[in-house]
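Submission checklist for the structure archive. All mandatory fields must be present; incomplete records are returned to the submitter.

[x] Identifier: Zinc-dependent hydrolase
[x] Organism: Rheinheimera nanhaiensis E407-8
[x] Residue count: 285
[x] Sequence attached
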Amino acid sequence: MKLQLFTTLALLLAVAPLQADRFKEVQVQDTKLTENLYMLTGAGGNMATIIAGDKVLLVDSQYAELADKIKAKLGELGATSGVTTLVNTHLHGDHVGGNSQLAAGVDIIAHHNVLSRLTQDSQFPRNGLPTITFKEQLKLRLGGQTIRLDYLPPSHTDGDIVVWFEEANVVHFGDLLFEGRFPFIDTNNGGSVKGYIDNTRQLMGMLNQQTRVIPGHGQLTDKAGVQRSLDMMQATLAIVQGYKAAGMTEQQAVEKGLGEQWKSWHWNFITEERWIKTLYRADVN
Ligand SMILES: [Zn+2]
């Protein structure tokens, strides 16, 4: 089942235009983290929600086509109203696609660069645009929880935030973590390989052994899972830098590959070839 969802996700990310029937089989599922905090999965970026009766905070909105299923799940978990506050971790369509359907008319919070970029996208529904933006940090209180939004320097894009649920010791990394797979670094939207690795390292120092980490994609994980991702990025970057230092072209580096150790990180959207090219082109010195 996990593999099936995963394949669906990869198709969604890779194939445009999106077809509604691709979502037909998708189920929105919850993982309970505290009494009123949940991780939600469906297709696209993982979500988090705090349900406090008629106050409902949602982190990310996946796709418009899934909005009804997401609403149904929130109701099943005890929400007596629709979403009252939506947070977007960044601008990608699999994280903001349901904004308009789920949060038109309520607070939609994101980093300022997300608003700038989405505003330039004439296809993006105006009533799904962020209504509250910030540059460095924003704190909210809801359902007895402190929710802290921290901006990090350009990495996956130039508008990524991580969402801390302080009392619960839970953090939503947005796409600063692709758990168990090569990450997407969107240089067309201000992303940076160096920034991504630096941010991962910095975030590692803010986690403890009990912290639960919701990745943008993949399974709920922890500090050890973030460390595995960091180790992979540092090791594969060193490999590709070695190829460059030896005078290999990008194509030669792709043909040589990263070796058996990193094979399992390959997936449909960020293949080993695409990851090698990302690293080869990275300005990391
Ligand atoms: Zn993303």
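[x] Structure attached
Curator remark: The domain at 2-281 is CATH 3.60.15.10 (Metallo-beta-lactamase; Chain A). The chain has one domain: 2-281.
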